[in-house]
Amino acid sequence: MSCIVEKFSHFIELTAEERETLKHLEKEECTYRKREVIFSQDRSVENLYVIKEGLAISYCEHSDGGRIVLNFHFPGDLVNAMTLGLGETPYSLMAVSDSVLCPFPKSGFSELFSQSARLTSLIYAFGMLDNTVLIDRLRAIGRMSAENRLALLILQIHARLNLFSDHETLEFDAPISQEIMADAVGLTPVYVNRILSNFREQGLLSFRSRRVVIHDKPALLKMSEFKDRYYNLDISWLPSEHATAQDSIDRTTN
After folding, report:
1. Which residues pair with residue 173 across a beta bridge?
2. What is the distance between the alpha carbons of residues 210 and 202, in angstroms, rounded to a whole number?
3. 16 DSSP assignment
4. H or E stretch including 104?
């Protein structure tokens, strides 16, 4: 199954036409090696991307050479849709592992918008979801201890990886270096390593060879104030399955 179809199917029952529309976004494929930069911030980017395999991060670089990791992008995610109205993208995109991405021009999104108001609305909802997850993490950076914000990050990644699972698993692969974790929560890699060691000693979780095992999720939930935004996504407002974008506009104006 198409990874983007799988993601959308988790939230709504897709029609055959909607499935074909989404599959069309994955028509072209480009392979990127680990740590390869796909596009750089403050540049004009003409494509949107569907993550088909692997993992990517979007991040901003500082003039002093530092960076802040904004979002993690997993298979099925659509990258760059929320910057359609910008002449330059405000962030860079890098493959964290060997990855396959499907690029398509911005005009392809225009076609999707005209064909299906429901799919367009769901893409918008996913974009706002990503923003909300980022807000949760920025709020944690501003007011939580280092341990609590790292716990929040791990639970956020865990929730996203469990999105398609029939049952929750507390053991999962996370091909994310401690350096990337540090850049996502405003810490140093050395500090992240120390916290992960403390978590292991306290029986909270273990992180070895890029594999995470959660041993005490209730404790992690309490210390991080984590909310599963993926599980609570509200789609009750989506247009009907046969509505086009023009139909929705006409109903709004009449």
Report:
1. 211
2. 19
3. H
4. strand 99-105
Nearest in space to 199 (alpha carbons), one of 154, 140, 157: 154
3-state helix, strand, coil in the chain (%, to 5): 45, 20, 35
> Measured between alpha carbons, how far is residue 79 from residues 4, 35, 74, 125, 236 in Å?
12, 17, 10, 13, 24
Which residues, other chains included, contact 94 with Cβ-Cβ below 8 Å and sequence gap of 6+?
Answer: 35, 36, 37, 38, 56, 57, 59
CA distance 17 to 115: 10
Q: Are 103 and 33 in contact (CB under 8 A)?
A: no
- As a whole number of angstroms, the distance between CA 125 and CA 119 comes to 10
The distance in angstroms from the start CA to the end CA of the chain is 40
Q: DSSP characters for 29-72?
A: -EEE-TT-EEE-TTB---EEEEEEES-EEEEEE-TTS-EEEEEE
- For residue 156, give every residue at least 6 positions away whose Cβ sits within 8 Å of its Cβ, in sequence order, or none: 133, 136, 137, 226
Sheet hosting strand 56-61, strand order edge to edge: 37-39, 92-95, 56-61, 67-73
The CA radius of gyration of the chain, in Å to the nearest whole number, is: 19
Distance CA(59)–CA(61), nearest Å, equals 7
**pTM of this structure:** 0.90
pLDDT of residue 244: 64
- Where do we find the tokens 């109903």? 251
Is the Cβ–Cβ distance between 59 and 91 less than 8 Å?
A: yes
All residues at 6 or more sequence positions from 70 whose CB lies less than 8 Å from its CB, including other chains: 57, 58, 59, 60, 91, 134
Successive 10-residue mean pLDDT values, the chain, 254 residues: 89 93 92 97 92 96 90 94 88 96 88 90 93 95 96 96 82 91 96 97 93 96 94 89 61 52
